[in-house]
Write a structure and sequence with these properties.
Layout: H1 2-23, H2 27-49
Length: 50
């Protein structure tokens, strides 16, 4: 019975770690989003000048 207790704890730990990795934003994705936002802002400024 002790074996199963440790297996359950390891599975819960693995799920928590994987869940944390899945929800943490990737730095590369963050950089891409910032570039997109900057481009949209520049496009809006160009449209205002026209």
């Amino acid at each position: 019975m002790e074996k199963f207790k440790y297996i359950n704890y390891s599975l819960v730990f693995a799920m928590l770690v994987l869940g944390g990795c899945a929800t943490k934003p990737n730095p590369l994705e963050k950089q891409m989003q910032q570039k997109e936002a900057l481009k949209k802002q520049q496009d809006a400024e160009i449209q205002q000048k026209i």
